[in-house]
User: Fold this.
Amino acid sequence: MADGEEDPAVFSCASLPADPRLLATVTNAYLGTRVYRDVLHVIGVYNGAAGDTHRADIPSPANVRMVKPGADELSETFALDTRTGTFSHVLRSADCTATQQIYAHHSLVHLMAVSVTIQRAARATQPIELQLQAPLALKSPDLDLHRGPDFQGAHYLYGKTLVPEVEGGPQPTVHMLWTPVPPAVTLRAAERERTWHFLTALRGPPRLRRALRGALYYVLSALPPLGEPAFPFRGISPGGLSNGGQGEDYWGHVFWDQDTWIFPNILLFYPEAARAILEYRIRTLGGAFRNAQEQGYEGAKFPWESAATGQEVCPEEIYGAQEIHVTGDVLMAFEQYYHTTQDQKLFREDGGWTLVDAVARYWCSRMEWDEQERCYHIKGVMPPDEYHYQVDNSVYTNALARRSLYFAADVARDLSIPVPEEWVERAEQLKVPFDAERKYHPEYDGYSPGEPVKQADVVLLGFPLMYPMSAEVRRNDLETYEPVTVWDGPAMTWSMFAVGWLELKEVQRAQSQLDKCFSNITEPFQIWVENSDGSGAVNFLTGMGGFLQAVLFGYTGFRITKRSLRFDPACPNDIDKLKVAGVSYMGNKLNFTITKEKMKIKVTERPPGPPASPLEAVLEGSGQRLPLREGQSVSFPTAAGCIRSSSAEAF
Assistant:
């Protein structure tokens, strides 16, 4: 970083946002809060029945703020360091510098820490006192709380949730130890410095770099700790663990946002964490079976909104009944994981095949034969565009159902399980609406061009579905839906238009779409809001996930296919170098360095265990094959190609 250049990984300001929803969050995979907020949340701890289920509010001992009344020439700085996940508040006066730090530990995930340090100025000699405001109220609308005996100077509080998600279901108990915070701390005259701890158990435009740093920090903070496969991961909600109490940020429920918008970014860097996300869906499969049964279908239907059990907890019945594409979204995450890792153990031994089979059976039971059109229809659904409901043959839903069935058949073959004939037959005969005259995909049967659309829908056919179509049709879909998609809709929408234009090498059009995302990013802490007018969920991880995909899959052209990881770079003019380090593919770790003229790939790690087939890079135009050996780099003029096992067939 050049001298005087602002560090894109540190977000700082002299005053806090007036809207407390936009304050920085400190979270790990187990607990989280917003700074200066009186509640925190613990993963998987929900209160309320069915549609009233929400994250349980727990009193937060980490809600501490230091003040120095009467100080002359006082200045303040607030900062979030996304490298360490630490929020800092620094007070500077004539006699001292005081620093308060708050962080959620990422190894000891049950721990949240607050520290206060006072450092005396060189000529100051008098005692220095700081007041600590810690308005801790030991009550909760969601838990039956009780004080227990103190333990080694720490206070103890415990209690279980009041109402289970389903009748007879679990009511988790929370146990919390914390060091009491005194009303003030004093640096005595003889002391120069002292710290108090309070514990609770790429080169490019600076704006882009800050946005990427912020999105990575908030998304990665939601992941389970690496190296702990037994950690009970409970999914990722749109507003993260710091939000989701009753009436806010979708109550902490898990949506398709996790599987479609956030998951792909995690998969390419942290396949172990990606597996934990899939295991959450496997653990809640019993609820998905019940959802399908209650609606009169076979197999498993994943809920539009999920909490602890996998049963539908959406407060509004229409979404749970009609927005069924979520079931295909879940399976697409399993497919992406399978093709990236070839982890057959997940499917053979750990419940993956049961889920795949159940989803395939659900889709077969959900479609019906239309004698007039001589094909299968899926009727009465709500597509991702939630402005329309009770429609027939949503193009996104049907294309996803077809993909689900093909994937289920592929896995069955790999596992030497007989493939039911109806899976392939119904996939091939399922209607996917297409207007041959206009050469574009109508959103559903009866859609008229020009009707307003809430969010990315048909454009998702091109990515992430990679539904087969010509460049002309891809362009027509983008040009049809871009002008009718509402400008202030959910934040992830424009990233998918950007990916589409990058795919067609329309770099400036892509950049104009990606620029729209910045209206959803608030200063100073890079907190995303769901809608550009400030409404909806805050700390909106879904928008961040879409934004990260625009860079990770858009600029690089990465595509996960059955036999390879494809690349086809297209970077805007103001990005002169893109480096993507630590990409995981088939157990290997790879670094990519991309400029407009040259591309370099290096394998930094090979998979442990028995020697696997080595990787190679294959260039699409020439067919040139470049062996990829650990510790060595290959370079070539920037072009499309793929990474594959040297024993596989490319393209």
User: Anything to note?
Assistant: Residues 578-645 form one domain.
